[in-house]
Amino acid sequence: MKIMKNIWIIGFIITSTFVDAQDLGNPDCDSLLLVSSWSKDNVKIYDGCDGSYIRDLAEPGILDGPQAIFQDPNGDVIIVSESNHKLVKFDRENLNTATTVIAAGRIENPITVVKKNANNIYLGSYSSNKIIEVNMQNWQTTRTVLPRNNGKIQGVDIGMAIDEAGYLYVPGYDSDSILKVNSANGTTSQFVAPRADNLDRPRTVLINNNRVLVTAWGNQAIVSYSLNGELQEAVVTNFPGVAGMIQDGPDHILVTSDTSSTVRRYQLSDFSFETIVSPHSGGLAAATYVYRLPKHGNIDKTTNVQQASLQH
Fold first, then answer.
1. pLDDT per residue over 264-284, tens digit each?
2. Spatial CB neighbours of 22, under 8 Å, sequence gap ≥ 6
3. Torsion angle of alpha carbons 46, 52, 55, 60, nearest 10°?
């Protein structure tokens, strides 16, 4: 996000006693919703069916400005903690033990993640506009895809996307643009040029069939573009604080608002919606990202941040 907080954490592993993840919430519901509560420095856990609040994910002092959420190859939950410059892992079985997998000093203000494949991610920085590739087996940086202070984009934000050809679509909150990056060689082009079509503070990009959906915070809208970057229409309007957006099965998306602190579930056919997490439920404040976590089995491909797989 845009405000730096001067909180520094000492120590890498903190444990608490909680029940197993599969026993949280309604026993008849097969998933949980994890929602980043940026200004409360935590991730809220909700029932995946009725949206009722269950508990906070982390003990106080672990996370600082949580943003993107994903799962590693073992199914453990990884939180991108922007303001203390870390990635923190929570054990999949109990959502309990917190372990820092990328410590401060590697990348400034990490904010967004998209999966290259089962073992590698692309990780982007808000403040330096740098994108690196990281191996999730050892959490080492394998290469730099886009160098820091590159002059191509400003304010890389929470929702990068990747297409089947390996091109990254990177929202620039401060440049009012979307940058297209060839992840193989780092060459770039403007998918949406700065301030083109009055785009104002894009936060998340999602590739959905033959269109590209963008949450535009300044426009209070979700905007649809063709695969060539041509503006089509605003499919959702009058949604203040629209921020994070993920696919939720073949026919729906989940969308957060960081001003009303809520999560909506939209039907992709007509963009009607239901509110799945009520405003400020469980103390939710500045909801920036949402992730559906299956209670059983492997990573659910319909909510995985590797969005290329969602086009089928």
1. 999 999 999 999 999 999 999
2. 93, 295, 296
3. 80
Q: Helix, strand, or coil here: 285?
A: coil
The CATH number corresponding to 13-311 among 3.30.1300.30, 2.30.30.140, 2.120.10.30, 3.40.50.720 equals: 2.120.10.30
Taking the C-alpha atoms of residue 54 and residue 171, their distance in angstroms, rounded to an integer, is 32
| Cα separation, 270 vs 253, whole angstroms | 12
Which two three-digit tokens encode residue 220? 């209070």
pLDDT digits (tens, 9 = 90+) for 183-227: 999 999 999 999 999 999 999 999 999 999 999 999 999 999 999
Classify strands 231-236 and 42-47 as parallel, antiparallel or unpaired: unpaired
Residue 161 exposure: Cα atoms within 13 Å on the Cβ side: 31
Instruction: Supply the Cα-derived Rg of the chain in whole angstroms.
Output: 18
| Predicted TM-score (pTM) of this structure | 0.90
Q: Can you tell me which residue has the tokens 């509110």?
A: 275
What are the structure tokens assigned to 174, written together?
A: 């401060």
Could you write out the three-class secondary structure of 188-239? EEEEECCCHHHCCCEEEEEEECCEEEEEECCCCEEEEEECCCCEEEEEECCC
Residues in contact with 25: Cβ distance below 8 Å, sequence separation at least 6, in sequence order:
32, 45, 46, 47, 48, 49, 52, 54
